[in-house]
Sequence to fold (281 residues):
Amino acid sequence: MAASPRRPATPQNNRRRIHQASQIVVVLASALLLLFLGCGKKSSSKTEPRAGSRPPASRPKGNPRLAIIIDDLGNDSDSADSLLELPFPLTISILPHLPLSSAIAEEAHRRGHKVLLHLPMEAASPAAEPEAIELRVGMNAAQVESLLAGMLETVPHAAGANNHQGSRATADPALMETLMPLLRERRLFFIDSRTTAATVAYDAAERLGVRAASRKVFLDDTPSREAILAQLDQAAADALRDGEAIAIGHPRPATISALAEGLPRLEARGVHLVFASALVH
Fold:
């Protein structure tokens, strides 16, 4: 077989040979650099997270959030005024059909607080004094809808509801499955006050498409300033541990005094105070 004729040494062929040689040099240099870096790098048993990756679960949660709901407003303008003057985002839960229900709801809304309907429901204990108008086990859908509509008329600006008493009502699946679609139609959320461990209210809300959350701490079952401050610390601990928590109290002088003293301390610990609407899911 005859040998292939040798390409003439033209300027174009020379440039091609130079380019090919340059590519080979770059590849060899890169390989040597990678080898050098690999040999000089110290081994480590820990893996550093990538920028923007989720932090390890052992790290404390950032920006823990705490919502304070104050129940049972609607009768006393002095306690309502003292409460609304506090410079914190408070969620004001107002009982319907009381002499000052509408006025307090309007004033709370005007001052930038979040308003809830404190929805009266049937209690389990015979000792609990029933409200004149409340949701009761055995009511049909038309009765529940009529009562709810009337209550909301007396509590303007309500963004959601939480139960007043209701240890029997919130444990009744049929009543909760009747109530929740009515709240959903009105775009209202629900906070389960958890007045009984047997409650099915939160589960019903979640299943039926109502944004919901549950109370973690009652602030003033023991109505002394020291006890309420201790409960505030417990609520803060829950928020720091879980990322968020809801506490419920009442417009008592000791509660208002404890909030004025204790809430700035919680904020200094990094607990972010929010409306209950920020914690429904």
Summary: Residues 11-40 form the longest helix (30 residues). Residues 217 and 247 are 5 Å apart (CA to CA).
